[in-house]
Design goal:
It is a single chain. By secondary structure, the protein is of the alpha+beta class.
Length: 113
């Protein structure tokens, strides 16, 4: 009976850990800007010239250049220079570091002008 009790607690703990991984909190954001297209996908550029990629949008098509309000979870991915073994840069980004800002699970509304 003791082995079953230990196994039960290990199983419960495992389920709790898995749930924590799926329920991670994100940084909820609301951004306002103008839609645009970039090589990596559809973007929104704010008044401050910050660029946010919108998850699931490859291209805004006929909605390019429109005012928009987007809400969602902000995910930041840090990119740095790629170097070969001899420390020679083979791919570079601005100042050696670039952060790609992605709005995940986005919801948006085109703003009235």
């Amino acid at each position: 009976m003791m082995q079953f009790e230990n196994f039960k607690w290990v199983l419960i703990l495992g389920i709790l850990v898995m749930n924590l991984n799926f329920c991670q909190k994100c940084e909820k954001v609301i951004i306002k800007g103008i839609t645009g297209n970039a090589k990596l996908g559809g973007i929104v550029e704010t008044e401050n010239k910050e660029v946010y990629y919108i998850e699931g949008i490859d291209n805004w098509g006929g909605n390019t250049g429109k005012s928009i309000i987007v809400t969602g979870c902000l995910n930041k991915i840090k990119h740095t220079d790629k170097k070969e073994n001899d420390n020679q840069i083979i791919q570079t980004v601005d100042n050696g570091v670039w952060v790609k800002k992605i709005i995940q699970n986005p919801k948006w509304k085109f703003a009235d002008k």
